[in-house]
Known about the structure:
alpha/beta; 6-stranded mixed β-sheet
Amino acid sequence: MSTEQRETLETILRQSAFPPSSNVNEQRRQLKALLSAQPLPTDVTVTPAALGGVPTAEITIDGIEPRHTVLYFHGGVYVVGDAFLAADLASQVGRRTHAKVISVDYRLAPEHPYPAAVDDALAAYQALLHNGTAPSDIAFAGESAGGGLAIATLVNARDHGLPLPAAAFVMSPYADLTLTGTTMDTKHEVDPLMSRQALQARSSPTSPACHP
């Protein structure tokens, strides 16, 4: 990538197609259109299912005999995205770990404020255990808000006295909803997508995505 191409890409990312002031339904529509334009690999199968009453997408890859189960949580600042739109990235995790991936379609704000997503994540994990999957054969994974949700579910499972999974793999976890971390400032210039301004609309004390 040339310097000119990189600068053009950064400009596009900084002029986000999903401004926080825009309607959340429009953001969801645009995200779905964007991700749906990228077809899944032909060897990936996505099947609607449920765990503990929570909708899920079961993701398998042809030719891979699953040895483990990954409980996957999609990103989207707790307001956009879904388990099926995350299937491409989730399937890559499954491909590299030789695991079946169960992507959790947790409820989103603002229709379902905190603790809906946390409750759904725990319910799915409890159901997986109840169905006979050993905790040693389970790993959590997630990106962005999903990474934060994976961490929250580890804490929630511990507090409920449940056995913990073998591991958790989180990618750029959105874990600091207070936005007080120093990297919000020190990395401001190098991160063209995430900024305090872009996140504040979804993480302020009045945001339905947060703890009331």
